[in-house]
Amino acid sequence: MQENSDQKIFDQIIKHTELKSKKVLEIGCGAGRISSLLSKETSQLIAIDPDDNAIKKAKRNIPGVDFKVGSGEILNYPDSFFDTVIFTLSLHHHPNSKKALSEAKRVLRQNGMIIVVEPVNDGEVEQVFAFVHNENTETLNAQNSIKNSDLSVIALDVFSSEWVFDDEDDLFQSLFGYYNMPISSNVADNITNFLGKKIRSKPIILKDKLIIQALTQSNDAVEYIQN
User: Fold this and answer.
1) Which of 30, 216, 213 is nearest to 110 (CA)?
2) Is 80 left (phi over 0), alpha (psi -120 to 50) or beta?
3) Which residues, in sequence order, are CB contacts of 30 under 8 Å at separation 6+?
4) Of 225, 216, 220, nearest to 149 (Cα)?
């Protein structure tokens, strides 16, 4: 399996905010795939994730980033500490996404920016993954938290990337392996029915649909779009 979502996400982030000479917090960094790209642009990058094993892997493989175990709901940093806070596909993973946004706002400097990148439920990749692990409710809750926050959405873009699988076997091994689950024949059948003729393609190319939103404490908001 190959995918270009990391590069696409990074390209969108730097399209919407200037990172050079900035102190940046990345929330939900995982093993640091996007952190490795962000670190080339920032003057200081702190990246947190609740998964201790992922943080250990990131520390081994990616220099120049201050990786720490942590949650966006409880940020151990002073008020007005960061120029930019970035949620990389992570806001919906917080049980209380409203609190995570509030914490991000607290540690954000005046005129700073919060960048939120999230999956969109009607994307092809998202629909396929939902057969194995459905996060639709969580992603909608995250969007509602943004909509109902006292932050202003000053920019919003929907964009896509591609996930490329060699064949049907690669698709199922990658999909179930992502969640460390054995392949379920019933779920595989449901995915096969959903994809139709595409399941026999070599390679199988699926579109990943994502949304990026730039949030500030200003009143210069754009019209909010629910995706």
Assistant:
1) 216
2) left
3) 49, 51, 54, 58, 88
4) 216
Q: Which residue has the tokens 């005046």?
A: 110
Helix, strand, coil percent content, the chain, rounded in steps of 5: 35, 30, 35
Q: What is the mean pLDDT of each run of 10 residues along the chain (227 residues)?
A: 94 95 96 96 96 97 96 97 97 97 97 97 96 96 96 96 96 94 96 96 96 85 43
- Residue 219, pLDDT score: 57
CB atoms within 10 A of CB 166: 14
Q: What is the pLDDT at residue 227?
A: 37
Residue 201, amino acid: S
For 83, half-sphere exposure in the C-beta direction (CA atoms, 13 angstrom radius) is 12
| Bridge partners (DSSP) listed for residue 44 | 23
Note the pLDDT of residue 150: 92
Contact 79, 104 (CB under 8 A): no
The answer to whether residues 5 and 88 touch, using CB atoms and an 8 Å cutoff, is no
The domains located in the chain, with CATH, are 2-120+134-162+209-216 (3.40.50.150)
Both ends of the chain: CA-CA distance in Å?
27
Per the rule left: phi > 0, alpha: psi between -120 and 50, beta: everything else, 58 is alpha
Residue 81 phi, psi dihedral angles, 5° rounding: -95, -30
